[in-house]
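Project standup — Tuesday

K.O.: blocked on the structure for the chain from last sprint. Re-posting the sequence here as requested.
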Amino acid sequence: MTVYRVRAYFDTPVVFAEDIHLDGLLMSAHPDAKKRPIDRSMRDCDLPRIPVPILRMSQLGHKINLCTAAETSPGAQMVEDYTTKRRDGQDFDWLSRSVHLGLGPGKNRMRRLLVVVADYFEWLAWSRGGQGIKKMLRRLRYVGSWRSAGYGVVKRWEINPTDLRITDVLIQNNVAKRHLPLSWCSEAAAKDFGRVKPPYWLPNGEVPRVRAGTHCHLKGEITRRLEEIELRDSRPADTALPC
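H.V.: unblocked you, prediction finished:
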């Protein structure tokens, strides 16, 4: 098993309000996600079982995919942008009834967005091989929100093996690399309440957690479990797998 570095290179800025985890992206790209759409009323027991090519670790009542949330390339900037909703002449030709441009759903709108301008986003994942990840990423042409407005267009994906340790997928320099169950941490600078597995936007299944980017320390039993997995599953890294 190997820790892979996954990068998405972009043609356009990216809009996102929440941390984008790699397992959530891969889950959304799976064909089964199209067959059984997920809605906000679902609970974990109702969710379709959608496999992703990332290994998991089960400990203290939580089963977590060993992958990170997105990090931006050096020099990335958060800037303002605007998107508009305005009816044009072709819209009026197709509409069967009159539209009030000042009120209701037909109202012209301009919305302010905060977007990230970055060369790439980067993730880490502990996997049996890069081929499974590569195959699923080919289905993803966009990352983030407001895709219909042209944001988050992926120019290309890259997947490369690394010499990183499995612990680096969860924490580096005492900073969480993904959302972690609070029960896995001996201390944390901050905590909140939310999901630690995909889909992360679902309002059900929330638990006490430590968000990605928070200063924290893993419990000794979690660190030992990671070392056991690494010792059991280690093997030489594969060659690079460009998409």
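K.O.: great, moving the ticket to review. The chain has two domains: 2-75+122-242, 77-117. The longest helix spans residues 220-233.
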